[in-house]
Amino acid sequence: MNVKLWVWTIVFILIGGGIMFYGMSYNPLAWAQGFVSFTEPNDEPIPWGLLVIGYIFFGVIGTGVSTYNSLYELFNKNHKERNPFDKIKLRNEWLALAVLIPGWIMVFASTYKPAEALFIYLSFRSTSRIAWNGVLYALVGIGIIAEILALIGEKIKEEGKRGILDRFLAWLSSKTTFEIPGMLKLVVDIDALIVGYAILAELILDANLGSVFGYLSTWVYEFGPFMSILLVVASFYAGIAMISFITPLYSWLRRPTAITPTPAKPIATHISGSGSIDPEEDNTVFKVLARDGLLATIGIGFLVLWWVWLTATNQETLPWAELLINGSWSLVFWIGLVLIGIIIPIILYSIAYKKESKGWLFASSIFVLLGWFVLITLADVIPQAISWYYSVSPVSPPGSTWAYELRSNFNGVSQYTQLPFAISQYDLVWFAGSVLFLLGVYTLGVLLLPLEEEEKPKHWFFK
C-alpha cells in the first residue's frame, strides 16, 4: 500500500470538496431549492466568467486526452506493438475522465440556479447549443468510462475469469459474430466500436463548445465554423500537453521496481519510468508526444493568425481586433498567447523531439497549458467585452435578445463601450475546489484501478 499516495488522495478530495461546500455554506438548502445566496454567478458586467472558462478549459483537455489516445489505439488495433501508448493507454483514459470532472462541476456551478441544472435534460431544447453541451458531456463521459472498462476487460480476458461481470467486461474487449445462415456473416469488434464512438462524441462536443462562442450575437456569422475548428484543434493542443505533463511527472514520482539482473540482461529494464516501460520505450513515447505537440501548436498558431485576420479585416468586428492587437487585452494576447502559448512551446517541443527528453517535454507542456488557458479566456471574454449601441444591430441575428441603445456618431457619442472583466469570489471558490478535487480523483484511480500493464484486476475491475 502506498501510504503517501493515500494521504495525498484523501487530503485533496477533502480540501477540494470542503472548498466547494464553502461556496454554498451561507445557505446550503438554497441550492436544493434552486437559489444561490453566496453570490449570483452571472451578475458581473461580463456574465460568462471564470467558471465558463474553467469548464471549457478542463472539458477540452479531457476530450483531447481521450481523442488523441484513442486514435492511436484505434488505428493500431491489430498491431499493438506499433502503438507507442499501448502500455499507458488505460492510464491516459483515466486521466481524461478525471480531467472532465472539474469541467462537469463547473458546468453546474456556472448556471444561475445550479440545483435546477437537471432541467437541461428534463426540459431539453434542441435549439440550445448550451443544452447540447450538457447532453454531449454525458455522452462523452459514457464513452470514456466504457473505454476504460473495455481496456480492463482485456486484462480480465487474459486472466480467464468466469464471473458474470468478468464475462461482460471481457466481451467489451472482444469480437462478436452476427450470422444469418446462408446470407450474412458479420464480425463486430466491440472495443473498436466503443473507441470510435468515444472519438466521435468528443469531437462533436469540442465543435459544439466552439459554436457556443462562434454564434454569439456579437460576432459575425463566419465565426461559427471558425470557433468550432479552433476548439477541435485546441483539444489536441491541450490534450497532448496534459499527457506530456502527467507522463514525465508520473515517471519521476513512481518508485523504482527491483529487478534481479540476469546474464542475458545485466541492466534492469524496469526503472522509475512511466509505468512498466523500459527506458528505450520511454524515449519513444516522449518523442512521439513532442512531435505531435509541435504539430498541434503550429496548427493553433495558424488558427490564431486566422482569428486576427478575420476580425481585423471586417468592419463589424474591427473593435474586437483592436482589443487584441493594441487595446486593453493586447498584453494578454501577445505575451500570454503568442509568446507563452505558441512561440516558446514550438522551441521547447523541437528540443524535446531532437533530444527525446522528458524534461524539455515537461517544460513545454507547462507553457502550452498556460497558453491554452489564455486562449480560452480570450475566446470567452473578447466577444462579451464590447456592448454595442445601435437601434438595429448590424451583427445580431433576427430574434436576438441582445439589448441595444440608440446612439450614433451624429450625437457625438461612441457607438460602443468596453465592459470590464471581473472574477467573483464565487468563481474563485468553485474553480479552486474543482481543481484540487481533480488531483485527488486522479490519484484515487491510480490506487484502485489496474492502470499499469503489469497490474491485473483482482475484484471486479479493481486491482
Automatic annotation (TrEMBL):
Pfam families assigned: NrfD (PF03916)
Keyword vocabulary terms for this entry: Cell membrane, Membrane, Transmembrane, Transmembrane helix
Originating organism: Acidianus infernus
Protein name (Swiss-Prot/TrEMBL): Sulfur reduction protein DsrP
Subcellular location: Cell membrane
Bilayer-crossing regions: 5-26, 46-71, 92-110, 130-152, 186-205, 225-246, 293-312, 332-352, 359-379, 428-449
UniProt KW Acetylation keyword: no
Topological relation to the membrane, as annotated: Multi-pass membrane protein
Recorded family membership: Belongs to the NrfD family.
Domain of life: Archaea
Cellular component terms per the entry's GO annotation: plasma membrane
